[in-house]
Amino acid sequence: MTTLLCVVLDINQENWDLPKTNNSMNEENGSLQLGKFLDKFFVFLKTFLLLDPQNEFSLFLNSSSRVELIYPKPQQKSTGKKSKINEMKKERTVLKELYLKRISQQKHRKKNQLQNKEKEQTQTNFGGGEDEILRMKEKSSFEKEIKTSISDFLTNLKPNSVEGKTTSLSESLSRVLCYINSVLKKKESQRISQQQSSRKKNMTNTMSFNQKKILSTEERVRQLELSQMLADSALRPRIMVVQLSKDVPSQYVPVMNCIFASQKIQIPIDALVLSKLDSMFLQQASHITEGVYYKTTRQSEILQILLTNFIVDHWSRRFLKLPKPSNIDYRATCFDNQKVVELGYVCSVCLSIFSKYSVLCPNCHTRFPIKKIDKIKFNSKK
């Protein structure tokens, strides 16, 4: 199963140990060196790409001030005239290739059959032949690009923008969901264009009745296998959050909106928390979306945790016993003062939660019946 892994990395300067002199995790401060973590994380990404040559990943940096996509870098939009000219050139090249292929099939059919068998064997072994090998080499050479972009991101951060040991988790999740939506739309358009081009090829390469009889059953089986491979090549997105910062109670509503949106689209959210305190938001996110939640403070365990718990796709997790959090914090936050609430008042219209009673809801401005509320209070005191 081909997957699109979207990683959100907490890059807050106050949580990471950035100087190069310290080569280990400082247990007193709880600070982890960024360089050593990236080396282990690159091993995880390379093994993820080796599982399937069609796997893809993206990396978002999350700080207290902004969220940025550093890999793959967004491409600049071209003008309309240039795009039309490029499309015309592509169509001409495709027509020329089809014409040359048709002539070569008529002249050297036997030789081409042997060559096609050899090519198919290489495709089954390497997942697409020489093109896939070159693609894998391009994918594996991402370390320098990511390191340079992280250093540029840290240098461009303003010192006044750092507001304690917090990050904008809601903004990063919304950006990731928008990115996944755009990637899936592009893949769908490419798949539709491939289907249309294959139909045109079948119409141009019409054969006589006698030639259709010559077609062997093996070729028909190969065509069915190719169609099944195209159907199974759809990307299954997955989100992974690496967090060191504390939760911000004021972000409860937008974070929960992102969690429910990913649940509706069936996108699991995995969470790796590298701090002593648990994350209430990520615990609920991994539980609601059927993801993986793991908390550790030891640097020596990070690579093993990544390779054993977070590398598996959503479909194959059914056959494995992955760790599950025993105590999940399901408490909500007050919409008024942004504090964690165990018992509170819930609006029956907009489902907003408040720690104190009020006649009017501050969000939707609905008026509550006072007599019924007084009866409920009187019965609860008894």
Walk me through what this model shows:
With 382 residues, the protein is α/β, with parallel strands linked by helices. It is built from twelve helices and twelve strands. The N and C termini lie far apart (58 Å). It has helices at residues 34-51, 80-107, 109-126, 130-140, 143-156, 169-204, 209-214, 217-232, 252-264, 280-288, 302-310, 370-381; strands spanning 3-10, 16-17, 32-33, 56-62, 67-71, 236-243, 269-273, 293-295, 332-333, 340-341, 345-346, 353-354. The strands form four sheets. It has a six-stranded mixed beta sheet, sandwiched between helices. Strands 2-3 form a two-stranded parallel ribbon. A two-stranded antiparallel sheet has the order 9-10. A hairpin with a 6-residue loop joins strand 9 (332-333) and strand 10. It is globular and about 90 Å long.
How many helices? The count is: 12
Low-confidence stretches: 20-30
Structural class given helices, strands, pairing? alpha/beta
| Secondary structure: helix percent | 40-55%
Task: Round the Cα radius of gyration to an integer and report it.
Answer: 27 Å
Which strand order do you get reading across the main beta sheet?
5-4-1-6-7-8
Total number of beta strands: 12
What integer is the average pLDDT?
Answer: 76
What distance separates the N and C termini?
Answer: 58 Å
CATH 4th-level superfamily of the domain at 3-75 and 141-183 and 233-319? von Willebrand factor, type A domain
Order of helices and strands: EEEHEEHHHHHHHEHEHEHEEEEH
* CATH domain fold name of the domain at 3-75 and 141-183 and 233-319: Rossmann fold
User: What is the CATH architecture descriptor of the domain at 3-75 and 141-183 and 233-319?
Assistant: 3-Layer(aba) Sandwich
CATH class category of the domain at 3-75 and 141-183 and 233-319: Alpha Beta
GO molecular function, one term: zinc ion binding
InterPro entries: TFIIH_Tfb4/GTF2H3, vWFA_dom_sf
Keywords: DNA damage, DNA repair, Metal-binding, Nucleus, Transcription, Transcription regulation, Zinc, Zinc-finger
Family: Belongs to the TFB4 family.
